[in-house]
Amino acid sequence: MSFIILLLINAGILLGMTYILPTVTIKNYTTAILVALVIGLLNATIGWLIRFPMNVVTLGLLSFVIHLFVTAVMIKIADILFSDFQIKGFAPAVIIALVMAIVGSLINFF
What we know:
Keywords: Membrane, Transmembrane, Transmembrane helix. This is Putative membrane protein. It is a single chain. It is built from four helices and two strands, in the order αβααβα. A two-stranded antiparallel ribbon has the order 1-2. Helix 1 packs across helix 2 and helix 1 (2-20) packs antiparallel against helix 4 (91-109). It is mainly alpha-helical. It is globular, with a radius of gyration of 13 Å. It has helices at 2-20, 29-57, 63-81, 91-109; strands at 24-26, 85-87. The chain has one domain.
């Protein structure tokens, strides 16, 4: 159940960032839900395969930074996969990843 709630919140974050960041465009909330689902699936599969060796090399000291960077890369991959979702540049992807990480941490905290 928490996965579905987090998915809907991440979709809301994606949609909300279109109003804050002018370089992010998304067609509608359905596309935002699909993009959030793909980002979650990419993070769970490919993202984990990228994060694990990097965390081993850094002894887990830069875990948050690595997770943030990998999530931003997964957001850019989702940008390539969806024509209704566009991000111009890597910095907006990092900002979206940061907001998703903060909100996800707050949800897991409570």
